[in-house]
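Let's practice the habit of predicting before peeking. Look at the sequence and jot down your guess about where helices and strands might fall. Then scroll down.
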Amino acid sequence: METRGTHIVCELSGCSPHILTDLDGVRTIMESAAREANAEILKVTFHRFQPQGVSGVVVIAESHLSIHTWPESGYAAVDFYTCGDHTDPRRACEFAAKRLGAQSMLTTEVKRGIASTNGLYTHVVHEHAGRSMAKRSA
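Done guessing? Here is the structure:
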């Protein structure tokens, strides 16, 4: 099935409130997540809300990564949308979850831009999975 891109919608719970309210820290994590996905960063814009919370977008040549944080709840809503075969939004998602200190991650993967015979485009929900991010001892 040929698609225009893969969009991962990611719910991160149990994140570090300290990290989620740190504008520079969240921006660095998201830029690093883009690089982890092998994406080319074009533009970055982030905003810190008062008294807490950060929203931001990393525009990449292959589409975008975005985040909205609620430090008071330890929650982050994160989207990773990439086009092309050389990027891997799953790697970006895993990277961000670990760096934000998430205890659990719920993802929905959507294959987007599937052409139909009538000239319209559609999407398919490919995967929906939740898992604990708790560290396992060796």
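How did you do? The first helix runs from residue 17 to 20.
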